[in-house]
Amino acid sequence: MKSTQNKKIQQVKETTMVVGIDVGSEKHYFRAFNWRGIELTKKPIPFSNSMVGFKSFYEEVTRLMEQNDLEEPLVGFEPTGHYWFNLGQFLSGKNIRFVMVNPLHVHKTKELDDNSPSKNDRKDPRVIANLVRDGRYFYTYMPTGVYAELRNASNRRFVLTEELIRSKNRLQKWIAVYFPEYKGIYTHIDSRGGLMVLKTAPTPEEVVKLGVDGIIQIWKDAKLRGNGHKKAMLIVNAASQSIGLTEGLEEARMEIQDLIEDYELQLKRLEKVNSLIENLCKQIKYVDKLLEIKGIGMITIAGFIAEVGDITRFDNAKELQKLAGLELVADSSGKHNGKTRISKRGRKHLRYLLVQAAASVIGKNEEFRQIHEYYTTRDNNPLKKMQSLIAVACKLIRVFYVILTKGKSYDASKMLEDIKRPVTTKAKAA
Predict the structure, then answer these.
(1) For the chain, what is the radius of gyration of the CA atoms?
(2) CA 311 → CA 6, 325, 344, distances in Å?
(3) 333 phi and psi angles, rounded to 5 deg
(4) Domain range spanning residue 192?
């Protein structure tokens, strides 16, 4: 996967036609150039974001290559949201190479042509094509097979989790207003036994009418264990002494019931997606070895693979570190030495997942806990807690890479090799 800028420049040969595309939601614009930067199109050519538009683009590119005795196109565009997905799939099907340019590079470069940073459909394709000619591009990755399925499933899980949290928070708000004593009975607002009661009797008045026997009957019908007469008495007593609002109950009753139904529906969807993710992960080689790491679960592994895709496309773990935006960058000039920081230019979901995983292994895994303690307490260049967390996240990347590419089992003892114990005077004498 590693490719220097010089190697990228060498991809543009005398027989190459460089095509820059400004991607839009409904319409795209392209301009074509030869390897020297001479434009082959008289003006930006539009084509629709449809199969008809894609075919017209392909036909025009083919015609231009024949007209100018060129052999292969190299297409470049910005990764603008999701609008390029369908176009990328079409180009892959036609065996046309396409690459991405950094939107930040486009923004900073476009004013060189006319000393104006303005955006327009005529200007952007030229800027993109010039960046490609200069080797300032990166190769995109479109996952296929199980990796594509896993990425989609993981993205859906993320959305469902957010929706579940929102429903839970809204439910908590309404209960706090109309039945605040409920929080003292159940530690978690979404306790199954409590939600069953509220679904039938959303307000304290209705809970009192339902009574202890009615509550117990609900739990019996659902074959719910762990909720008995004592818990039912607590709910009824709390409801009889509730200070919750007694006005607007009709709307509150509907709102609470709807929120509970939404929560239960989203929970079922999440469980279904989690099951799919687990089955997909089992199809990937050496995933079982990652589960040997204490503090690392299937959801973390699935999220990692979903973001990375086929890990064998990477030459080393440092490329993964860069993908996550966790590579170190120095801010220095002349005699000035600024702070070293992480770039944060990468897949933010991957970066978030790795940091969360690092926190998990520090809390649950003895060897990673020792590493964290060493990083933060060593005499030479001790790290702050957040810096140590980043360092542990980078170590996890290296561990994941070795296991998934070489099939090696997790070795806890090797994790401690980073710890450099100070050599005592007695040890030196020996």
Answers:
(1) 29
(2) 25, 17, 20
(3) -160, 125
(4) 148-279
Assess contact for 260 and 193: CB atoms under 8 A. no
CB 401 within 8 A of CB 314: yes
Residue-level pLDDT at 120: 57
Contacts of 299 (CB under 8 A, 6+ apart): 157, 274, 277
Q: How confident is the model at residue 427 (pLDDT cuts 50, 70, 90)?
A: very low
- Find all residues with CB under 8 Å of 415, minimum gap 6, and list them: 367, 368, 371, 395, 399
In a domain? residue 184: yes
246-248-254 Cα angle (round to 5): 110
Q: What is the pTM of this model?
A: 0.75
- d(Cα 246, Cα 135) in Å, to the nearest integer? 69
Helix (H, G, I), strand (E, B) or coil at 327: coil
**Do 129 and 212 fall within a single domain?**
no
CA-to-CA distance for 205 and 350, rounded, in angstroms? 48
Q: Which residue has the tokens 């052999």?
A: 71
Q: H or E stretch including 303?
A: helix 298-308
- Residue 247 is part of a domain; what is its CATH number? 1.10.287.4070
From CA 91, how far away is CA 57, in angstroms rounded? 10
